[in-house]
Amino acid sequence: MEARSRDTPIEVTRIGAVGRGVPGERPPGPKEIPLVGNPRIFERDSLAAFIDTARTYGDTVSYHIGPQLVFLLTHPDDIAQVVLGEQSKFMKGALTHELSGFLGRGLVTSEGRFWRRQRKIAAPSFTRRHIEKFADTMVVCSRRALGTMHPGVRNVHVDMMEMTLDIVLETVFGHAEVPDISAVGPLVETMMEGFHRAYLSWRRLLPRLAMKRTHDALADARVQLDEIFYGIIKQRRAQADYGDDLLGRLLAARDDDGTGMTDEQVRDEVATIFLAGHETTALSLSFAMLLLAEHPDAQARARAEVDQVLGERPATMQDVRRLPYVEAVLKESMRVLPPVYLFGREALEDVEIAGWVIPRGTQVLTPVCAIHKDARWYDDPDRFVPERWLDGLADRLPKYAYLPFGAGARVCVGNHFAMLEGILGLATLLQRLEFAPDPDFELQLLTSVTLRPKGGVSVRVSRRRDRA
Ligand code: HEM
């Protein structure tokens, strides 16, 4: 495709059929099997299936998963309608509601007035200004991870899961002196494994009884985690000063009328931060490392920037804006391999979008992975090219054509946190390490709540020879 001018906004064109506003008419979609619906959910590479489906049928696609009608929307204008213009006609999708078994009524899972109040109380703790205070903690944890990443072929996703857990524990509970805090990591892991096993695309079709062992393990982990979380909350409430870690801020946060959160609400938000903020950031970093290993030129450029800005000293908050290439690497990694590859809503009433009437109860999916690979918005969309972010692409893109953190009212509240952690974490790793491909490794992706690398992310890691 011809390279586009730097100054012109990218034109928002539409592909595929537009409806006529007739109830019952459906946009095109893959051929279906009776009772099962779209057979592509059984495909090994279901990420490719989403991308391919959008490329084949256009901006509005429909199909069934079992008896459930699904609409797949990939046009930025239609996404705007769902997440902003007509957001009151939608609630979070079925999968998100499954998560409420563990997350309770935290920000990710709650709805309506309750969600609005929680978001208003919690959001100030996640502003850029507040998150900046965690920069040093993030660097300390990243340097700690460096100490454990011995040279050789490594599953760097395990390394990044440990690193981001360390960061989330330090930033949420930094001031807690709780003996059983070390149990939180394994329990959160159990929870996430359980979710992924139970809700991996096609397994959602199975009756709950078929997944009984998994659901029992999830319930057990929840009981144990609750004991720890409530213990910490109680202990902190008893203190005169709540402290300035995220827990302290949530405890101190007040609504306009001066009311704060109950212990249960704080617990739900803490659990939400653990689940929403730990694996997602680990994925963004693991994928960035893999892509840098596969693109030595980009790796050399990122390292040169890190060397020039940081040398051997630890990174600080002030360095972040001086690392534009490292930031571009992260942005491009999340374009190519978005940790949250899809988000969904459920229509609360009939809604007309792109001329199609979406019936009440339909699951409306936004396949971020397919939108990020759309040649209308991105030149050479399948290639990893961090440079594309350096010449103002973000300003030229149609709004909602880049959505790693979602969009609209329910956009990720932790996006500044994640970007700061990603830039500081990746820069710290590049100070000491080099990444090369593992010739025996091929990335296999599982589409669950997040984009999970089956068998991890294997990369050959070596210590930089020019560094002690
Ligand atoms: C690279 C890392 C991350 C990615 C890719 C990511 C992605 C997302 C996406 C796509 C959504 C919107 C889902 C939807 O609309 O259905 C979301 C929501 C959310 N994220 Fe993140 N996230 C990341 C990191 C974090 C971190 C670090 C935190 C907390 C410290 C966090 C907390 C949340 C919360 C609480 C919500 C729900 C917001 C609401 O509905 O009000 N996320 N995230």
Overview of the structural elements:
- By secondary structure, this protein is of the alpha+beta class.
- It has a single domain, classed as Cytochrome p450 (Orthogonal Bundle).
- The chain is built from 18 helices and twelve strands.
- The strands form four sheets. Strands 1-2-8-5-3 form a five-stranded mixed beta sheet. Strands 4-12-9 form a three-stranded antiparallel beta sheet. The protein has a two-stranded antiparallel ribbon with strand order 6-7.
- Helix 7 (135-148) runs antiparallel to helix 8 (156-173), helix 8 runs antiparallel to helix 13 (279-294) and helix 14 (296-310) crosses helix 18.
- The longest helix is centred in the middle third of the chain and has 26 residues, at 212-237.
- The model has no long low-confidence stretch (mean pLDDT 91).
- The site of protoporphyrin IX containing FE has 23 residues, from helix 12, helix 13 and helix 18.
Helix content: 40-55%
* Strand segment count: 12
How are the strands of the largest sheet arranged?
1-2-8-5-3
- The number of domains is 1
- Taken in chain order, the helices and strands follow as HEEHEHHHHHEHHHHHHHHEEEEHHHEEEE
Ranges where pLDDT stays below 50 over 5 or more residues in a row are: none
Q: Give the overall pLDDT as a whole number.
A: 91
CATH secondary-structure class:
Mainly Alpha
- Number of separate helices: 18
What's the gyration radius in Å? 22 Å
The first-to-last residue Cα distance is 45 Å
Briefly note the structural class of the backbone.
Answer: alpha+beta
β-strand percent reads 5-15%
Task: Note the overall shape.
Answer: globular
Which ligands occur here? protoporphyrin IX containing FE
CATH homologous superfamily placement: Cytochrome P450
* Annotated CATH topology: Cytochrome p450
